[in-house]
Amino acid sequence: MTQELTQTPTGFFGEFGGSYVPPVVQEALDQLAEAYDRYKDDPEFLAEYHHYLKDYSGRETPLYYAESLTQHLGGAKIYLKREDLNHLGAHKLNNVIGQILLAKRMGKKKVIAETGAGQHGVATAAAAAKFGMSCDIYMGALDVERQRLNVFRMEMLGATVHAVQEGERTLKEAVDAAFGAWIQGIEDTFYVLGSAVGPHPYPSMVKDFQKVISQEARRQILEKEGRLPDMVIACVGGGSNAIGAFAEFLPDSQVALVGVEAAGHGLQTDRHAATLTLGTVGVVDGMKTYALFNEDGSVMPVYSISPGLDYPGVGPEHAYLKDAGRAKYVPATDAEAVQALLLLTRLEGIIPAIESSHALAEVIKRAPQMSPDQIIIVNVSGRGDKDVAAIADYLQAHPELKL
Ligand SMILES: *Cc1c(COP(=O)(O)O)cnc(C)c1O
Predict the structure, then answer these.
(1) Are the C-beta atoms of 61 and 214 separated by less than 8 Å?
(2) Could you confirm whether 134 is annotated as catalytic?
(3) Three state DSSP letters for 187-226
(4) Residue 110: active-site member
(5) What is the pLDDT of residues 121-162, one digit of tens each?
(6) pLDDT at 98
(7) What are phi and psi of 260, to 5 degrees?
(8) pLDDT(9) > 60
(9) CA 275, 315, 21, 131 torsion: positive or negative?
């Protein structure tokens, strides 16, 4: 996005968020914001959304007491919110169903999306297949090479996958290409954005579609324990599963909220994606937020073992919650995440996504310091089947971490 930037007064979380985009994109965003305002509280729209969450995606997802993990760590009681049990194995479909139903209401025939590792692309392609819409997915050419299986899944589902050859050939260039394609076809195209990031209204809309996670979890913990948890922990890439897991607990000041970012090879290296820990405030992907910038103001290349967490920015509401002190954001390295993944797999028979394993790494640090009458809810944002080959490679390169 190199054109002149405009800024609207809506959609701010404190100083963060907003809409820093060229005028032609702003027109499309205004149209989207208006449509979303019209439908977000519409009982028919919400009934349809919850119908597909239930019968298509398999909600509600369980809140599972991880007894073996709790005993092993010897502290707080640990509950897992099982977003890994959604159709397609992650929380992403919660958001995609909401956006596709809105696209239908707006009369759009075509959806586009960006994707990094391919998880959001697969979810969008599946929903497009289900609702009979044409689907174009933009993916960095390097990611296309690294994620052949997801590329083939998207193609099976009827999507056209565009390999973006610019720059580093990863997610950032895919986002730029998707915005470019949106500008080309703004009349009939809906851009399904994959996280709680980007210009207004996306961060608020994606939060609304993901807050079902904490609506369920809050009710479930009250049923099981008769009280609220002491802490909710979730991993943060763009921040959609975390904001969904935090949303309904935000007014409960006794519930600590902890987001976990990818520290990759370590914060002292240049191979990490610890945006809120080490970033500075600036504009990226149409929003004002914390991001990792080079000295010349360009966006830093980021790294994590987990393909869902290597994003150089973060959703603006997380930037706000950090500065307001309502949520804390901490890093976890590749090694800590892999260890956490192996521990949950061995103790509970659940292979979590490597993204979610960053949140579990924080549970491993925190739970032993808490008392047995305290409660942690950790959001297991996805399942780890997709990561098995990467874990095998990691273990081969790090024999000290053997199974
Ligand atoms: C995409 C993804 C994430 C990261 O995205 P957020 O928007 O930060 O939630 C985390 N976990 C899984 C399983 C994912 O697929």
Answers:
(1) no
(2) no
(3) CCEEECCCCCCCCCCHHHHHHHHHCHHHHHHHHHHHHHHC
(4) no
(5) 999 999 999 999 999 999 999 999 988 999 999 999 999 999
(6) 98
(7) -120, 125
(8) no
(9) positive
73-120 residue pLDDT tens: 999 999 999 999 999 999 999 999 999 999 999 999 999 999 998 999
CATH number of the domain where residue 46 is located = 3.40.50.1100
Ligand 1 mean position, distance from CA 156 (Å): 23
240 lines ligand 1 (CB under 6 A): yes
281, part of any domain:
yes
Ligand 1 centroid distance, CA of 381 (Å): 6
Angle at 114 between CA 173 and CA 32, to 5 degrees: 115
**End position of a domain, from candidates 201, 235, 252:** 201
* Inside any domain, residue 100: yes
Q: Using a cut of 0.70, tell me whether the model's pTM lies above it.
A: yes
Pair (46, 65) in one structural domain: no
Q: Does 17 sit in the ligand 1 pocket, CB within 6 Å? A: no
Residue 92 annotated to the active site: yes
Q: Is 241 touching ligand 1 by the criterion CB < 6 Å?
A: yes
